[in-house]
Amino acid sequence: MAGDMQSARGTSRLYQGKGPWLLLPAWAVIGIFLLLPVCLIVVYSFLTKEFHGGVIPEPSLAAYDQFFFDRGIFGDDPPRIEWNYIEIYLLSFLQAGLATLFCLVIGLPSAWYIATRPIRLRQMLILVITVPYWVNLLIRTISLKFLIRDEGPMNAFLQWTGLLDHPLHLVNTSYAVQLGLFYSYLPFMVLPIFASAERFDIALSEASADLYSTKWQTFRLITLPTIWPGVVAGSILVFVPSLGAFLAPNLLGGAKTYMIGSLIDEQFKGAAGNWPFGAAAATILMSVVLVVLILNARSQIKLKGAG
Amino acid sequence: MKQTRISLLALGIVALSGGGALAEGDVALYNWGEYIEPEILIRFEAETGIHVTMDTYDSNEAMLASLKAGKLGQYDLAIPGDYMVDIMRNEGMLDTFEPSDLTNFGNILPQYIDVPFDPGRHSTIPYLTGTTSFAVDRNKFKGDINSLALLFNPPEELKGKINVLDAQNDVLALASMYLGIPQCTSDRDQLRALNDMLQNAKKDWASFGSDNSREVLVSGDVTLSMTWSGYSARARDEGANVEWAYPKEGYIMWMDNVVLLKDAPNRENALKFMNFLLEPEIGAANTNYAKYAPVLKGEKPFLDEKIANAPESNPPADHPGTFVQSCSEEVQVVYDKIWANLKK
Amino acid sequence: MRRSGLRDMPGFAQIFGLCVFLLYTPLIVIAVYSFNASSSITIWSGFTLDWYKEVFTGIDSQKYRDAAVNSLLVAVIASALSTVMALAAAVGMLRAGSFRGRSISFGLIGLPLLVPEIVTAVASLIFFSFLGLSGSFLTVLIAHTVFCIPFAYLPISARMQDIPDLYETAATDLYATKWQAFRLILLPMLLPGIVSGYLLSFIVSLDDFLITNFVKGNGFETLPTVIFGAVRTGIRPNIMAMSSLLLLISIVLVLLSYLIGRQGREKFRI
């Protein structure tokens, strides 16, 4: 399979045998300064909780029990399946998925538009997209909230134009959370797509256009496949951070429903102080996403092998 | 306020030009962000030659977590709230001193010396105090605001117009007061009632939010916001017509304290800094800066009139607030469940 | 070059316009309210320059300036380091055939992305304390470099997947060394990916609060830690003023580089 790969899709064996060496710096830095600490956290999830944070080094499955089983508020009812946390996870995945979709809908055409401008303009436009993100996320989110308030500028404008006769209620709804996530992560979608859309052999699509395909046919059949790696990369960069986001849900959504980010946050820096449970919740999240990522990488490699 | 600032600066300059401000080492302070009048640090260094380095946190629990994760031993002083002092003592994070080590100890208001979380003050000195209840927009709600029922069983016109602090301890403490049950009760029926009451109240709440609990009042997004007294005073400054409630069922009194940490690298300097903070003029500068209530005798002449006279700074003497307690582990587990149920 | 019809997909320009509109509207609010006399961002109560004065001459101005410098320094260095490592990693993943642990490597590179921030924060602090590293510029830099790697890696590898190796193979067939082939062929072609990766790492580093707050030491502040810390008293408009200034400076720089570049020859394409 993977061993028979040809040079399709930019993979090649030009540096055959050097792979591990080239990966070494990234492996080393992430391995030492993240993987080791994270392993510690995974171990913590199997230990006994210490009151007010910290762990006691005695093995325990209490954290996972708490995640999957409901034993009532006093902890002595017969165990039932605990749906709370599973629901929080599903809801977070749904929110992140929708955010990714919206970023794609706006981000892909924007990236394509930028990539097809003349070179100087292109450089400037890509900066135009990133410069707003020099302002702190908290400040931007506060400002966004101000804009979409019931009596805020957006509603005033919509009512002035006569499009609406009563304010659109967004603040403290999941629509506001969506908007916040979209706004937080948009360039994470635009930049990778731009990177792969900025093609040096645009002649290919021009040839297709010359052959009287419609613009959309060309876009779908020629362009989309070439920018696909960028779409995948952008989707990962929007989806995964959205899962753990806490500013948008808290500030714009009113924090009435836990998302994964605030649930885990609360265990380490909230009154609960339940490190093993926070660690278990994080371990479950990481395992799910990691499996998806690795499967994705494998299927890509297989695809290339077949091609 | 301007005047205090200027006089402080003038004093600082005098002290500087008086010489003697040689490097006498550091004192490491772990503090909330934007929670100390910057001129105090300048003046302290000018007078003693000791430089104050500062690190900041954004919640009591975040401070506890980072001390537990390895930062203990890097700081001399921290500024936890009342219940957190208890927790930190139980964790063995506090050092002790003799009140006689601090020449200004006598400046502390007498009612703040024998506090439940540090009777006699052997590890802490008071920093600032305030109350936690709720503020109501008087343009929109004209009724009586003297009861916690407004928060937990609101009248029709307040439904969906309420913001609640995103803080487990504070919400459960107020809820207990509303039900007339003791804080940290271990009685199962009472805990069940607490859980049911909160579940029922949640549907009338618009949002949970702490940092933005002031802004939502000013903007008019909500009519009632559970918040800290200083935020209510600031909301009024910013043009909101708010009234601060001292509900008849009770309200929370809180107090931030400067604590001497275990393994403090500069213990002597830390004590000097604590003593410095107990000077009335310094205390007043901080009170003016943070807009909470004073903890020292003799601060009055230095206080901004607006702050000294604000209803938020003057709780009714015959109806004092109650400190939040830190619960036993058994009760805390149930509290966590109740909170998780509320936030699911 | 001849203009292709594909350059102008119908509606794409409008969507791009919408995108820019969405991105900049909140910033206009920030800029306007940085001149607001009240310290609230929802009530307008008159024009003032006080907040700008405070940024330059206020008693805290030194602290904010230091924090801004720290933030920029960490962001510039951390994103440079992570981009270099990501580039090497991308070549290793896509140009070196297959080897054991290749798909696991992808998981490892993506790991910083999927560990929740608070977990990275607590775990790193425990780990640094264990190593005896007390919080400093160095610990912040290490932490930022680590979590920036996937943000640099993904645009670069997306770009590299679009580049068949025949150009490099042709060059090596013509007796170019591998290093020359890399430097003269692959690197220029990869530039859009590298620039994208660098910019993404940069803004991610600039925005980080939670991890920085845990691993930074006493007396070291970045802009987010200064801004987020203010919970006891609330955020004040001097932050708005500073953000607007930062924005203004970066917009001026972008425009300048565009205008200067227009006069120069189009030597390189990114």
UniProtKB/TrEMBL annotation, chain A:
It comes from the Bacteria. The keyword Calcium does not apply. Residues 89-296 form the ABC transmembrane type-1 domain. Gene3D superfamilies: MetI-like (1.10.3720.10). It is a multi-pass membrane protein. Coiled coil: none annotated. Belongs to the binding-protein-dependent transport system permease family. CysTW subfamily. The chain crosses the membrane at residues 21-47, 88-113, 125-148, 175-197, 218-240, 275-295. Keywords: Cell membrane, Membrane, Transmembrane, Transmembrane helix, Transport. GO terms for biological process: transmembrane transport. One of its GO terms (cellular component) is plasma membrane. The keyword Cell membrane applies. It comes from Antarcticimicrobium luteum. This is ABC transporter permease. It holds the Pfam family BPD_transp_1. It is found in: Cell membrane.
From TrEMBL, chain B:
The keyword Transport applies. Pfam families: SBP_bac_8 (PF13416). Transmembrane segments: none annotated. It is found in: Periplasm. GO terms for biological process: polyamine transport. Coiled coil: none annotated. This is Putrescine-binding periplasmic protein. It comes from Antarcticimicrobium luteum.
TrEMBL record, chain C:
Keywords: Cell inner membrane, Cell membrane, Membrane, Transmembrane, Transmembrane helix, Transport. InterPro entries: Bact_Polyamine_Transport, MetI-like, MetI-like_sf. Residues 68-257 form the ABC transmembrane type-1 domain. The chain crosses the membrane at residues 12-35, 72-94, 106-131, 137-156, 184-206, 239-260. PROSITE patterns: ABC_TM1. Belongs to the binding-protein-dependent transport system permease family. CysTW subfamily. Required for the activity of the bacterial periplasmic transport system of putrescine and spermidine. This is Spermidine/putrescine transport system permease protein PotC. The lineage of its organism: Bacteria, Pseudomonadati, Pseudomonadota, Alphaproteobacteria, Rhodobacterales.
